[in-house]
């Protein structure tokens, strides 16, 4: 078998391949002195070996939990996709993707997500763009327009377990209705918030309302020398009051900090929040690609209209044949049923399009005029089911 999970001692070879593929500096002396550290994460690596047993290519396939349509589902995060230059164009990566996606399917995963160097390249494996960020740069002086409300606490790692629970609680409430959001475990939280502020210049503040309930938080890094920009790593809020509350607090950092730089979910209309929207410089950034691993499971978990109904969806997935065919979805007061059935479709589309539709990245109206998306019947029902939804993801791999 040319593809398999690697052994702990083989992790260093994967690191070498990544180093060559991405011109990434690798300290081999440190790896030799501390082999246990260099072997961390080996269990996520899937590698392609040639007939001589040489590792030629690899990728990381990391299990996550993700929010989708009010449910928590399994998602396979793909990262570190690398090949030795002399081993490229041999189909190794294609084989690795099929192996990994089949492994996910057998283990009841619903989606797979990655951050691409090229959308076109990963589209061949069934992935498609699925998330956009609004990246904004705002003069910190603009925050003086907001009132100072509530109370704010500076979080210091390893000193206050209640603050940790407050941050986790705010995040968990925030993502309940946000598709794509990662349900974080302790390992993910540790990497985000267990950071020494005095050494790294990364700071975390929690905003509490007048009743002492935590409602928002911000994690940012001071970038610059002398005069700083506030580069936000994460900003989470539960309602308008808590968003304005944490933004109002930030005016205290002016004039030492000049600009506030932050990625917001696209659904937030930032320009109606600030009294001087002309001062905001913003751009939309496409971020991340997603694909359905299990078509039947995904359709079953979606929200459908209260009135009973049905839709027949013809999906074309050349890379994963189990996702191909017509899926008949019926729903009533007893629940949702999904079966593969040879019947006239209401909608015909690719796996890329249906992935965008089910997550709410797009609506059915967005594809009007596209030849690869055909609506045959039940246009109103399709429009009711496939509409834009709130999306959020801020975990990278």
Write the SSE topology.
Blueprint: E1 3-5, H1 11-22, H2 28-33, H3 35-38, E2 45-49, E3 55-68, E4 71-83, H4 92-106, E5 111-114, H5 119-123, E6 128-129, E7 132-139, E8 151-155, H6 161-174, H7 186-193, H8 197-200, E9 202-208, E10 214-225, E11 227-237, H9 240-249, E12 257-265, E13 281-286, E14 289-292, H10 295-301, E15 309-316, E16 325-332, E17 335-340, E18 347-350, H11 351-359, E19 374-375, H12 379-385
Parallel strand pairs: 4-5, 11-12, 15-18
Antiparallel strand pairs: 1-2, 2-3, 3-4, 5-14, 6-14, 7-12, 7-13, 8-9, 9-10, 10-11, 15-16, 16-17, 18-19
Q: Rg from C-alpha positions?
A: 23 Å
Judged by helices, strands and strand pairing, the structural class is alpha+beta
Mean pLDDT: 96
In spatial order, strands of the major sheet run 1-2-3-4-5-14-6
Distance between the termini: 27 Å
How would you describe the shape? globular
Number of strands: 19
Report on the structure:
The protein has helices spanning 11-22, 28-33, 35-38, 92-106, 119-123, 161-174, 186-193, 197-200, 240-249, 295-301, 351-359, 379-385; strands at 3-5, 45-49, 55-68, 71-83, 111-114, 128-129, 132-139, 151-155, 202-208, 214-225, 227-237, 257-265, 281-286, 289-292, 309-316, 325-332, 335-340, 347-350, 374-375. The protein is of the alpha+beta class. The protein has a 7-stranded mixed β-sheet with strand order 1-2-3-4-5-14-6, with helices on both faces. A hairpin with a 5-residue loop joins β9 (202-208) and β10 (214-225). It is globular and about 65 Å long. The relative contact order is 0.14.
């Amino acid at each position: 078998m040319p593809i398999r999970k690697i052994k702990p001692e083989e992790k260093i070879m994967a690191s070498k391949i990544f180093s060559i593929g991405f011109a990434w500096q690798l300290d081999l002396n440190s790896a030799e002195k501390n082999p246990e550290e260099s072997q961390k994460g080996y269990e996520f690596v899937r590698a392609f070996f040639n007939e001589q047993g040489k590792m030629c290519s690899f990728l990381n396939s990391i299990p996550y939990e993700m929010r989708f349509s009010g449910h928590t589902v399994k998602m396979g995060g793909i990262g570190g996709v690398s090949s030795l230059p002399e081993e490229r164009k041999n189909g190794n990566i294609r084989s690795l993707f099929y192996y990994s996606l089949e492994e996910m399917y057998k283990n009841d995963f619903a989606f797979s997500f990655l951050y691409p160097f090229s959308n076109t390249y990963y589209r061949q494996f069934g992935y498609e763009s699925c998330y956009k960020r609004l990246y904004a740069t705002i003069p910190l002086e603009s925050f003086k327009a907001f009132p100072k409300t509530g109370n704010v606490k500076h979080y210091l790692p390893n000193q206050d377990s209640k603050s940790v629970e407050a941050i986790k609680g705010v995040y968990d409430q925030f993502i309940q209705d946000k598709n794509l959001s990662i349900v974080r475990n302790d390992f993910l939280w540790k990497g985000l918030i267990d950071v020494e502020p005095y050494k790294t210049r990364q700071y975390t503040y929690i905003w509490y309302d007048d009743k002492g309930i935590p409602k928002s938080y911000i994690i940012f890094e001071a970038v610059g020398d002398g005069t700083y920009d506030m580069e936000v790593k994460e900003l989470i809020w539960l309602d308008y009051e808590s968003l304005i509350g944490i933004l109002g607090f930030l005016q205290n950092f002016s004039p030492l900090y000049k600009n506030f730089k932050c990625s917001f979910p696209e659904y937030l209309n930032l320009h109606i929040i600030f009294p001087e929207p002309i001062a905001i410089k913003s751009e939309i950034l496409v971020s991340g690609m997603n694909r359905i691993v299990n078509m039947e499971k995904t359709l079953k978990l979606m929200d459908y209209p209260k009135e009973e109904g049905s839709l027949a969806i013809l999906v074309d997935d050349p890379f994963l044949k189990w996702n191909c065919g017509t899926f008949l979805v019926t729903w009533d007061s007893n629940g949702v049923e999904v079966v593969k059935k040879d019947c006239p479709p209401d909608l015909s589309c690719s796996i890329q399009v249906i992935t965008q539709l089910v997550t709410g990245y797009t609506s059915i109206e967005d594809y009007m005029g596209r030849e690869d998306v055909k609506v045959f019947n039940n246009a109103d029902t399709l429009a009711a089911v496939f509409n834009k939804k709130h999306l959020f993801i801020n975990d990278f791999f």
